[in-house]
Amino acid sequence: MHSSQHKKSLAHRGREFKCPFCKRKFKSPSGIALHIESGFHKITRHHVTTAVRSLNIVPNITIKRITGPIHLPILYTYIATEASFNGSAYQCFMCYKPFQTLAGLNGHLNSPAHDDDEFRCPKCKTGFKLISGLFQHLESGSCGLVKNNQIKKLTGKFSRLTL
Questions:
Q1: Is the entire prediction scored with pTM above 0.85?
Q2: What are the φ/ψ torsions at residue 135 (nearest 5 degrees)?
Q3: Which of 11, 104, 123, 162 could form a disulfide with 99 if both were Cys (CB 3.0 to 4.6 A apart)?
């Protein structure tokens, strides 16, 4: 990373973005999104995805079209047991990825690893499982869609929805 890129990075930014649910502040909108998606406020990534879909943002950043009323999703929790041990590791029954511990496998099963790419960049069409991933992509400027502080405008609707 060049010196000028580093100086513009999050490492040197202040925490100017406040969580709408608590007093914590973050350096970027993606930081708030990650914080909320993590379940810190008893809101899951599934709730965030449903809320973002309801915004009808133009250009539409969601891949899937929703028709009819928006309902919170039914949430499932997957719990692997000792039966998932294959003799050398605990193995995911969906993707066959091995894990050294049962807790690691259970964390994987309840992560977004097997979720659909719900969000797509309107410019480069890259898909993301979480809105925080899309925000990070936009903040990085890698595809050039968002310049300077335009991310604040794009994420403003998200912040108002969560209030």
A1: no
A2: -60, -45
A3: 104
